[in-house]
Structure formats: C-alpha cells, structure tokens
Amino acid sequence: MRQRALIAMALSCKPDLLIADEPTTALDVTIQAQILNLLMELKEKLNTSVILITHDLGVVANTCSRVIVMYSGLVMEEGIIEDIFHNPLHPYTKGLLQSLPKAKGEKKQRLIPIKGNPPDLTVEIEGCPFAERCPNVMDICFRKQPRYYYKGENHRAMCWLLDESVDRKGENNGYEK
Predict the structure, then answer these.
(1) How far apart are CA 146 and CA 133, in angstroms?
(2) Quick one: which H or E segment has residue 95?
(3) Do residues 108 and 102 make contact, with C-beta atoms less than 8 angstroms apart?
(4) Which of 48, 86, 120, 165 sits between 20 and 30 A of 35, alpha carbons compared?
(5) Cα(44)–Cα(49) distance, rounded to whole angstroms?
(6) Is 0.90 surpassed by the pTM of this model?
C-alpha cells in the first residue's frame, strides 16, 4: 500500500518523467506484479516516461523497452531489450544473464556467479572497472578505459573485445586470473 501511495504522490504533479528506484524491493511476487502493472498503466494513461532502476533483470525483461547496464558508475552496455537479453556484448552483461535462474521447463543448471568483488570506488580506476572480474581480460583492459563500440544503431558497449584493431594474440599473457 505504501508503494502505491508513493506512486500516486509522484504522479500527482503529472511529471514528464518518473524515476522509480527499486520500486518492487521487498515485495512478494504478486504485489510486485501489481505495482509494475500499475506503473505501466499510469505511464500510458498519463503519457509519461519511466526510468526504472533495479537489480531485478526479470522486472527489466517484462516492463522495459531499453536497458542500460551499469558497473561501478559507468554504462557498460545499452540497447533495446532484445539486443541486451539475446545478444549481449559486454562480459558483465553476459555474466549477469548467466547468473539468472532458468525458466520453468528448461534443464536445471547451477547458477554461474560472477567471480571476484566489485572495485573500490574510493580509488581511481585506470582502464576498465570490470577487468579484475572479466573472464576475457586482456592487458589493455588494465591500462586504458575503452570507448563505446556500436553494434547496430541502438546497441553499444564499452569493451575492448569489440575493438577490431586490438590484437588479442597474447594480449592476456602474463596475467593470471
């Protein structure tokens, strides 16, 4: 009920943009679905945009049209739902998707966690912030932060793996994971 009251308060001013930060945290699945349905109905009815901030990729898959995947305060990948969920470009996005439970009916498998720990954000990071945890890390990942590489008009990722000019032969020699 509190979530609904907060949504009603937020929408009472008829905003052009509603930012919903973890609106379904600590709610059971039924109430979660009701809140998300209410948000989407009001979005259409009031012709407003919604930015949904969440760690729940199931919520993202069922309610969003575009996704921005962030790590250590940086956008690692951005695109439409289909691109992100069916053709992820960044190793972090791939790791997030591999750590999700499989849908009912699919063969049960162990969840694959992303190894390691997030970086200390009080220390300036040289290179890619995901390098320490990346299964495809190359030497350049520790030295220089990559730019964004586009795969299609609306799909981009910040990863050296997408740079065709980077020589991957021997790039990660000498680095033990």
Answers:
(1) 16
(2) helix 91-98
(3) yes
(4) 86
(5) 9
(6) no
